[in-house]
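Database export, one record per block. Field names are fixed; values are copied verbatim from the stored entry.
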Amino acid sequence: MTENGQGGAPTALRMILGKQLQALREKAGLSYEQAAEAIYSSPWTVRRMERAEGGLKPLTVKGLLAAYGITEAREVDSFVALSLEASKPGWWHSYNDVLPGWFRTFVGLEEAASSIRGYDPHWIPGLLQTEDYAHASVRTGFPDATSSEAERRVALRLARQQILNRPAPPRLWLVIDETALRRPAATTGPDVMRAQIDRMIEACQQPNITLQILPFSAGLHPAMYGPFRIFRFDAAELPDIVYAESLTSAYYIDKPDEAGEYSKVLDRICAQAAPPDETTGILTTIRKEI
């Protein structure tokens, strides 16, 4: 087992354990069906475990390890300890009433990542939103939500921001389209948007945050299709994971070739965007104009 896996976020731990179980199964030359027979289960269950899509019961993990030829007590105990830690709910579990299943993985990845990069064409990123901007976006995105449900969604969004102020925060590097900065957040006047831009100017002063603005003058670019995130982790077992979403669902990409294409696109967008040292000046100018 890797030391990087110990004490991490539950989502990352499940991913690490899943990757390791997959490697052991393949090394043992067993198919999903054969592994499933060893634990009196279904191939679907084994697949879900390897993909970190479900819980990891210690007895099931032990059964798989035995089938894969792992019998040394210390190594088995290490796997079991990791499975117990990985099965603990993350802090976001308490928001399950307003957290779609497809977005729970995103919050877990956000919590576990050492680096978060991405592009936002329409909205101010959730990790940087003020409370008033978050309220405006929730009211727009969930027009049928009750007042209490809207408050819960805003609270969740603000709680996610705590990762930026923890002792070992992730490296956040985002490219934000000028459109998102000039689109009014509320019909009550420009105050909400001005306060939001102030928040982003403050964020530029944090050493772990880099913001770039993609101006209108940049013209067409390779990510016209929408926003996305690229998560990177300290654990060597974990590949980069790309996240993108539609109106009612999301998809996650961890195949190196496909994730690499997103990295290339983001590098090109960064090259088209204004340099990071110009971001504060651009934000200040936009603030005066709205």
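Remark 1: Residues 1-7 have pLDDT under 50 and may be disordered.
Remark 2: The CA atoms of residues 40 and 269 lie 50 Å apart.
End of record.
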